[in-house]
């Protein structure tokens, strides 16, 4: 066959596959044989094919011989559906308006066919393109949003740095977790990895692609090579696959079924790879038939052996991914057995040529090195009109032996299948017999027969009683004591209505019967028998009855044991049927499991991939690559336990180690790793990218080193200041002359006042207070400052700010001035100023060095403490202290006023080059941000404690984000990140629980309210938990998703099912991009004293954060 003929045949096959897909979508019929037959009956006319399939109560027509002989002619692009079971219940889509519907379908199909003839591109492919372009456009738009730096990846490149020998993850660029799962599974096939990395485009198409296929496939191959090279040698923890995804837009289908998306994507991927390698193979061939490595790696062949109306046939077909039905089977072998046999096969073994029975078997003649099973976990719900996921449990082994399905073992397998069939028939009979023993009785309630006999024996052996169970109850008068008539005897009761008192007679006064109360009485009444017992039984009767019951029970138990033993032996025989050596020669080891969690049209994908060199399973979940185990794989992949289950299994031939073998240097014999595995062009590409990342790391490290050096210098300066308080030039200069004269006068007045005072010892606070009282004429206003004292205010002009006077800063300054009283009296205000500022700085330095509880955060009380802990420059500290001592509110008495004037004079002496005002303002802005973050946190925690979770969420979200920005600059710039993260996480979990409870109520207002909470609050916040990849946050997200996914298998009203279907895709979106978010709440204004008190109160009320944070 020529190349042109081959291309034409492939084009014809793909066109017919497109017709099959359109027919499947229109009619909802999934049986491929039925679809193929409809196309044959209609001679390829889609309108007639639809009419054929949508006939009311249509029966599947008899298949003719051509159906079997032409299975490869009705092309399916090498991907055929094998093992599907005929669906005789054809969906009736026409109703009463059958003609109108068929006309509409005919017009639609005619337009599709015309578009295909004109452009060569199907409507399906155009829809694929539009869907992906819209998704990519949305992703690009989200990247251009303002303020994205708050929600972006960690600014610290060390958080994004690849650990040594750790696999590289793939970033989810918008609903593409399926891409990561498939690509990682293929990448970890080292033979496939080598083929992609060393691919070079044909020389004849390097300049200009000849057709659309080359124009699409070659750029995709280059992007796939780039992506694989980064996955091999990148220094990044994860890489961005956006460019490859953009080119793959033709691999998408509509969003009706995500599994179809992934299956179709894998089909397209292998198809494109095959085309790309086919071009290369045809160029490299030298008179020989070109070998396509993709075909040799992923494609196999099977033999279809069939009988149609007594006529036998055989036909060889090629397959890629092998589809298997899940529903109705418990393990992979059962799925395969069902897929390998279709129809009634008794006639296959019969020599009668005139048998009317039909059927076929599939036997593998050639298995591919990589054997992929596609598990069909979705079915169409006719009532709801949409696909649903099958959550049934399906087990699969880590080592799969394919011998029983090989054509060379056809005869022995048939013998074993017949033996298994006979054993299963016998097993069914034994199980039915055993059931009669274990569920004995004729009523609705049944019990094991051995137990029934035991109960009868216990009844017979009980102590006989001679009275009625009613007569033997004690009828003595209760305490308090009104005597009543005794209860009627049984004989009286048997008299029936005639024993009742006549009408009009006085009602009978009855004794109140004591009632046994099990929760208030410690034991049974002594006169109440423990069990019912026979009234009359002789010793001889009891002896005979006990003997019979003992014997019967022993016989029943023996029979039960024998049946159970026989059943166990048959099970064991069936299990070991294929365990002999001759049937264990084709081993396939499980390489990868692709998992889907969610429902048919929404969910999350990840992959478990076996590392043969480390002998362990790895979990590839987008950017996260973690160690796993077989137990975790079983939990997530078998299904039945959760809403997660495997949808694709990838096995590799265990006798072909080249599939997973590392590459070795031909000269040195050393194993190649990292960049050494790459060809020169890719090595240069990865080296360049690593250089960019190294530069980013270097810039980050330089910035951090500069900050550390500044902090170190600031710390040294702070220590020097606290030890020697050596002042800068402006601090050493004397104050201006006019100020000095005025200060001298103030000093003389203070000394005269001190001499006139009593000579007894007083505290600095007391002296400061008394000096104010002596100099001020009564009456004057007073201010009481906690921990300092009560002062008379002398200032007449401008007054003072009582709120400022109550701040911890002002209290500390007044106390330091009081402690400088002696220096003020002896040496004047300037010396007292130096003494006071040293006292205050020493006090604040001690606060900064203390290890205090959460509720006593000195940073909120004193900006200087915040600056010291974060190693602010010395000049910033000094100017801030000067500004505090220069506060006008210190003018309430002469001594404070004198020191305030010294501080102002020092401020005036500061030259512009001595203090960087931009840096000064930056530090104070950081402190304002710290206070603002504290207010967000405080209000959020107060609302959380009041269970106002809706209101609390935004405060906690923004406190976490703003606090994270602060912590980037230093450890003491913000609050405990784990604490805020815990309550942010808890608030989201509480909201999720509340919303789920509203949904479970089923009431329309409650359901709408619950979904509104999820859509407006919880869902937008989930990317915030995913972006930093912390274990506790990821577990919280998993808990929230599992809660909603658990509803999928439950019965509910159609409107609830529809709302759930619409909501789940948003919840299961694993993208870390923020689509929409609320603005931060407006913050009230708090004084320092009020903020400190409220913050202290709420932090003191918090319980300790649980160890698991959940």
UniProtKB/TrEMBL annotation:
Q: Where is the composition biased (Basic and acidic residues)?
A: 738-751
Where is the protein localized? Cytoplasm; Nucleus
Q: Does the keyword Plastid apply?
A: no
The record's catalysed reaction(s) read:
Thiol-dependent hydrolysis of ester, thioester, amide, peptide and isopeptide bonds formed by the C-terminal Gly of ubiquitin (a 76-residue protein attached to proteins as an intracellular targeting signal)
- Principal localisation: cytoplasm
- Its GO CC terms? cytosol; nucleus
A GO molecular function term, named singly, is: cysteine-type deubiquitinase activity
Question: Which UniProt keyword terms apply here?
Answer: Coiled coil, Cytoplasm, Hydrolase, Isopeptide bond, Nucleus, Phosphoprotein, Protease, Repeat, Thiol protease, Ubl conjugation, Ubl conjugation pathway
**Biological-process GO terms, alphabetical:** protein deubiquitination; proteolysis
Q: Which SMART domains match?
A: UIM
Q: How does it assemble?
A: Homotetramer, inhibited form. Homodimer, active form. Interacts with ACTA1 (via its C-terminus); the interaction occurs for all isoforms but is strongest for isoform USP25m in muscle differentiating cells. Interacts (isoform USP25m only) with MYBPC1; the interaction prevents proteasomal degradation of MYBPC1. Interacts (isoform USP25m only) with FLNC (via filament repeats 17-18, 20-21 and 24). Interacts with GAPDH. Interacts with SUMO3; the interaction sumoylates efficiently USP25. Interacts with SUMO2; the interaction sumoylates efficiently USP25.
Q: What biological function has been recorded for the protein in this entry?
A: The muscle-specific isoform (USP25m) may have a role in the regulation of muscular differentiation and function.
* Protein's UniProt name: Ubiquitin carboxyl-terminal hydrolase 25
At the highest ranks, the source species' classification is: Eukaryota, Metazoa, Chordata, Craniata, Vertebrata
Which gene is transcribed and translated to give this protein? Answer: USP25
């Amino acid at each position: 066959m020529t190349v042109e003929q081959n291309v034409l045949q492939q084009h014809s096959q793909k066109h017919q596959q497109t017709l099959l897909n359109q027919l499947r979508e229109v009619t909802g019929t999934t049986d491929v044989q039925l679809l193929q037959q409809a196309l044959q009956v209609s001679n390829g006319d889609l309108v007639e094919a639809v009419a054929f399939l949508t006939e009311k109560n249509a029966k599947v027509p008899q298949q003719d011989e051509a159906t079997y002989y032409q299975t490869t002619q009705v092309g399916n692009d090498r991907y055929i559906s094998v093992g599907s079971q005929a669906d005789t219940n054809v969906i009736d889509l026409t109703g009463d308006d059958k003609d109108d519907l068929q006309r509409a379908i005919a017009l639609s199909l005619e337009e599709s066919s015309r578009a295909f003839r004109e452009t060569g591109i199907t409507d399906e492919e155009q829809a694929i393109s539009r869907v992906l372009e819209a998704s990519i456009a949305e992703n690009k738009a989200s990247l251009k949003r303002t303020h994205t730096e708050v929600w972006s990846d960690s600014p610290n490149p060390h958080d994004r740095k690849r650990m040594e020998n750790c696999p590289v993850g793939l970033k989810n660029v918008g609903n593409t977790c399926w891409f990561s799962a498939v690509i990682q599974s293929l990448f970890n096939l080292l033979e496939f990895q080598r083929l992609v990395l060393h691919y070079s485009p044909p020389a004849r198409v390097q300049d200009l692609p000849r057709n659309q296929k080359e124009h699409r496939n070659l750029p995709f191959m280059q992007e796939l090579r780039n992506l694989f090279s980064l996955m091999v040698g990148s220094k990044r923890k994860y890489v961005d696959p956006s460019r490859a995804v953009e080119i793959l837009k033709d691999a998408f289908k509509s969003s009706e079924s995500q599994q179809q998306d992934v299956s179709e994507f894998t089909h397209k991927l292998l198809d494109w790879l095959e085309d790309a390698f086919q071009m290369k193979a045809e160029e490299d061939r030298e008179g020989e038939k070109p070998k396509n490595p993709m075909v040799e790696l992923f494609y196999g062949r099977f033999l279809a052996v069939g009988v149609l109306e007594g006529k036998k046939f055989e036909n060889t077909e090629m397959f890629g991914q092998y589809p298997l039905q899940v529903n109705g089977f418990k393990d992979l072998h059962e799925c395969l057995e069902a897929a390998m046999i279709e129809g009634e096969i008794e006639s296959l073994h019969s020599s009668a040529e005139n048998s009317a029975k039909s059927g076929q078997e599939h036997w593998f003649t050639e298995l591919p090195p990589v054997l992929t099973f596609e598990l069909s976990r979705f079915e169409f719900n006719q009532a709801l009109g949409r696909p649903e996921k099958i959550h049934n449990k399906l087990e699969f082994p880590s080592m799969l032996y394919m011998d029983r399905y090989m054509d060379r073992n056809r005869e022995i397998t048939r013998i074993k299948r017949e033996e298994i069939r006979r054993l299963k028939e016998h097993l069914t009979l034994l199980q039915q017999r055993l059931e009669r023993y274990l569920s004995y009785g004729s009523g609705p309630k049944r019990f094991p027969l051995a137990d029934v006999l035991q109960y009868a024996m216990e009844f017979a052996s009980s102590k006989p009683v001679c009275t009625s169970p009613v007569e033997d109850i004690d009828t003595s008068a209760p305490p308090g004591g009104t005597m009543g008539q005794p209860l009627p005897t049984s004989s009286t009761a048997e008299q029936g209505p005639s024993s009742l008192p006549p009408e009009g007679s006085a009602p009978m006064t009855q004794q109140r019967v004591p009632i046994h109360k099990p929760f208030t009485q410690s034991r049974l009444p002594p006169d109440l028998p423990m069990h019912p017992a026979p009234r009359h039984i002789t010793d001889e009767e009891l002896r005979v009855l006990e003997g019979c019951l003992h014997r019967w029970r022993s016989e029943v138990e023996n029979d039960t044991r024998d049946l159970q033993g026989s059943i166990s032996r048959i099970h064991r025989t069936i299990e070991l049927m294929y365990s002999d050596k001759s049937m264990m020669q084709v081993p396939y080891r499980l390489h990868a499991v692709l998992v889907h969690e969610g429902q048919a049209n929404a969910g999350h994908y990840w992959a478990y991939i076996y590392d043969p060199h480390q002998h362990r399973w790895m979990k590839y979940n987008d950017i996260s690559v973690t160690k796993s185990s077989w137990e975790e794989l079983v939990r997530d992949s078998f299904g039945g336990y959760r809403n997660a289950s495997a949808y694709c299994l990838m096995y590799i031939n265990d006798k072909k180690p080249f599939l997973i073998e590392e590459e070795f240097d031909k000269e040195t014999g050393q194993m190649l790793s990292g960049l050494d595995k790459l060809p020169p062009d890719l090595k240069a590409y990865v080296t360049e990218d690593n250089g960019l990342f190294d530069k980013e790391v270097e810039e980050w490290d330089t910035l951090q080193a500069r900050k550390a050096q500044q902090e170190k210098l600031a710390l040294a300066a702070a220590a020097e200041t606290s030890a020697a308080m050596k002042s800068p030039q402006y601090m050493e200069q004397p104050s201006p002359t006019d100020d000095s004269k005025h200060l001298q006068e103030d000093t003389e007045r203070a000394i005269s006042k001190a001499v006139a005072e009593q000579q007894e010892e007083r505290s600095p606070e007391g002296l400061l207070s008394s000096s104010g009282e002596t100099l001020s004429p009564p009456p004057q206003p007073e201010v009481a400052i906690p921990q300092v004292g009560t002062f008379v205010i002398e200032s007449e002009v401008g007054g003072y700010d009582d709120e400022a006077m109550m701040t911890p800063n002002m209290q500390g300054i007044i106390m330091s001035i009081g402690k400088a009283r002696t220096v003020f009296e002896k040496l004047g205000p300037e010396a007292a100023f130096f003494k006071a500022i040293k006292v205050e700085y020493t006090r604040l330095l001690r606060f900064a060095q203390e290890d205090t509880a959460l509720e006593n955060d000195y940073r909120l009380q004193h900006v200087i403490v915040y600056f010291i802990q974060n190693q602010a420059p010395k000049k910033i500290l000094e100017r801030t202290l000067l500004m505090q001592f220069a506060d006008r509110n210190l003018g309430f008495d002469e001594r404070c006023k004198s020191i305030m004037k010294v501080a102002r004079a020092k401020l005036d002496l500061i030259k512009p080059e001595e203090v960087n005002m931009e840096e000064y303002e930056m530090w104070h802005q950081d402190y304002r941000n710290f206070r603002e973050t504290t207010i967000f946190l405080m209000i959020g925690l107060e609302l959380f404690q009041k269970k106002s979770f809706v209101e609390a969420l935004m405060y906690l979200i923004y406190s976490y984000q703003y606090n994270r920005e602060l912590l980037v600059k230093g450890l003491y710039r913000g609050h405990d990140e784990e604490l805020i993260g815990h309550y942010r996480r808890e608030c989201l979990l509480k909201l999720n629980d509340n919303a789920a409870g509203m949904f479970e109520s089923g009431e329309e207002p409650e359901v709408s309210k619950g979904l509104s909470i999820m859509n407006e609050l919880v869902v937008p916040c989930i990317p915030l938990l995913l972006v930093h990849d912390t274990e506790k946050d990821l577990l919280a997200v998993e808990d929230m998703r599992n809660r909603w996914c658990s509803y999928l298998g439950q019965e509910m009203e159609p409107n609830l099912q529809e709302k759930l279907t619409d909501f789940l895709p948003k919840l299961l979106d694993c993208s870390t991009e923020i689509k929409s978010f609320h603005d931060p709440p407006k913050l009230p204004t708090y004084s320092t004293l009020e903020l400190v008190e409220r913050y202290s109160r709420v932090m003191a009320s918090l319980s300790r954060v649980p160890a698991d944070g959940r």
